[in-house]
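Hi R.,

As promised on Friday, here is the backbone we talked about, encoded as structure tokens. Could you run it through your design pipeline when you get a chance and send me back a sequence?
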């Protein structure tokens, strides 16, 4: 959450442009993360995101609880930076306990590994 609230995606896209990335060829993949189905937060989190200019649509209320869609927040940042090819894995690490470790599910020592590959191919 902290990386998204601090707009790390924006900084990455800007750095990529500085290094010569062509805007029209940028592609983003929103990988596995806790989903809006499970990411229950408190009102202070809403205040942080609202204060940083995020759209209200990244939050939803169900059964009196507040939920954050962290992938939608990152997609909004990417779109604002002009990245139009955004793909979402739609995989919730909390729901998918058969596949993913989740700190929020109590697996404090478990870790996940993610990687990025750069290619000059156009997909």
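Update: got your reply. Pasting your designed sequence below so it's all in one thread:
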């Amino acid at each position: 959450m902290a990386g998204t609230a601090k707009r790390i995606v924006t900084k990455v896209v800007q750095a990529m442009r500085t290094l010569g990335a062509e805007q029209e060829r940028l592609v983003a993949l929103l990988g596995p993360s806790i989903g809006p189905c499970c990411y229950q937060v408190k009102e202070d989190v809403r205040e942080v995101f609202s204060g940083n200019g995020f759209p209200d649509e990244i939050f939803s209320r169900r059964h009196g609880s507040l939920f954050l869609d962290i992938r939608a927040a990152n997609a909004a940042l990417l779109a604002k930076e002009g990245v139009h090819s955004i793909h979402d894995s739609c995989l919730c690490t909390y729901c998918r306990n058969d596949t993913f470790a989740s700190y929020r599910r109590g697996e404090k020592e478990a870790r996940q590994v993610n990687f990025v590959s750069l290619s000059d191919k156009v997909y």
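One thing I noticed while checking it: The radius of gyration is 16 Å.

Thanks again,
M.
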